[in-house]
# Entry
Amino acid sequence: MTEIVGIDLGTTNSLCAVFRDGQPQLIPNPHGEFLTPSVVGILENGQVVVGAPARELRITRPERCRATFKRDMGSGRQVLIGRQTFSAVELSSLVLRSLKEDAESFLKQPVHEAVITVPAYFNDLQRKATRQAGEMAGLRVRRIINEPTAAALTYGFHDRTSDKKLLVIDLGGGTFDVTLMEVFDGTLEIISTAGESHLGGEDFTDALAASVLRGRNLDLEVVEDESPLLVSRLRQECEQAKRRLQTKEEVWIRIPDRKGHVGDNDPHSAVRVTREGFIQATKSLMERLKEPIRRVLRDGQSGPGDLDEVILVGGATRMLVLRQFVTDFFQREPQCRHNPDEVVALGAAVQAALMADDPALGDMVMTDVCPFTLGVEICRRFGDRHNDGYFSPIIHRNTTIPVSREEAYFTIEPNQDEVMFNIYQGEGRKVKDNLKLGELRVKGVPPGPAGQQVNVRFTYDLNGLLEVEARVPQTGKMFKTLLVNNVSLTGAELQAAIARMQALKSCPRDEVANRQLLLFAEKLVGEVNKEERRGLEQALDQFEQALDERDRGQFQHTRQGLLLVLESLGFRYEENRGYEDHDAGDHGDKKTDK
Ligand code: AMP
# Structure
């Protein structure tokens, strides 16, 4: 039997899961972790590094690595790594390829099919881009489902007996979704959903970094242009500080120098940040969370008091400020019965099991909605004038999917033989406030007075993908969508991109672990005193040489030597755990550093 894996392709971390023995279960990566950082590095020799080693590499070599590229899905933006350019789709495909390989070695069989999750607020272009990333990774994408829906599936799967109304608040690294749903008789019904595709935990980290620099009269963007190493390391410091503020009232953030080095014992290079300071620095982000929550409740004709549970999903919901805000807003403690990092991937595996008719699911059913309004641009008549730029909805937001709706439109000029339909998504009355998805040119409207009819049909499928057709009733002629925001690849372009990605070989797995150690130790060179530095550099040189020469005998020996030096300097290196995860004491406490 071929397995369909469930993949949570996250902004910060990605996970893969499979439904086995009546349960969804997570698949570990070669480091034994379930979370694979969504970071891609391209080494000088052209090899690809994905996950924790790439995240490490990013600190010392930000120009060779890319993270948070999910935010650029569907935009057509290209980034340069070394001498090659990559789109977000291509970078995402490398993450998916790595997860696919992990699944194959875990399941001991080839994996060709996947359910991939996307933020509910991902638009049509972003969804198509996600599907193409899957294809580039050699995966047939059987279904794209919304992240909060996947989270709801995990909750629904484990708690199918009680009827209740739930609100899922999903704040990941880069996106925010809120979903209202109801569980009754084993059916999971999504009632309404809302969100923002550019608001997540990374913005909180950036806001903290910006406020630290502001305290020194510096502007984050200006500093990033001039000293990217400083900012990439400062982000690292702020990320740790953000996490430590959960348990501490105040933390210290070390400000790196221009080369990204942080001094341990220089009190002038560290700033103190209190919980209150963090709240102030992120106030405007917290404000932005409120509107989607209000809208989802309004659309679902519910108030905060009608909910049986508020569920938190996504790594960034661990922030104390977020939890406090939710508790105040709903006057109740939020629930977090399943690990917020894992619940989406597990739900994707439940969806895969639903598609495979796994008997463990009994007659469980799930219905989802279209998260935004879809329609076309029209002209409005004011006296004898026509003004264009108005939005005519065809599928209203929060309509249950799949859905197919047809509307009739009419020519405005005598003998008008052509009509151009501009297709939009959004809630604005005027199209300038909405997102253009494409256009459809209808030719051959029969001659006659103004008012000749053209019917437009929108079909929104279970993957959240839109198809548009137009029909001239008098002639029966049909027309199909033509995408103008030409970010979707044509068949030939996709094949070329697949070949290009296949040519990029993954860095061998054992080498990845060694590179990770190398990067970890390299980072410490700038943090130790000059006597310590000499010994460390020597051990590093020997290890690097053994690695470069692929001398297996030597690299075991030199690796051991390097680990001993690190230990003697008071740095405990834990294999396969990034520096980012460390929960160091406050500044200057290198003994607790990993
Ligand atoms: P996700 O995309 O769901 O993996 O969420 C990643 C985001 O969660 C990142 O912005 C992290 O900084 C944030 N995050 C993860 N763990 C914590 C934590 N313990 N405290 C605060 N933020 C966290």
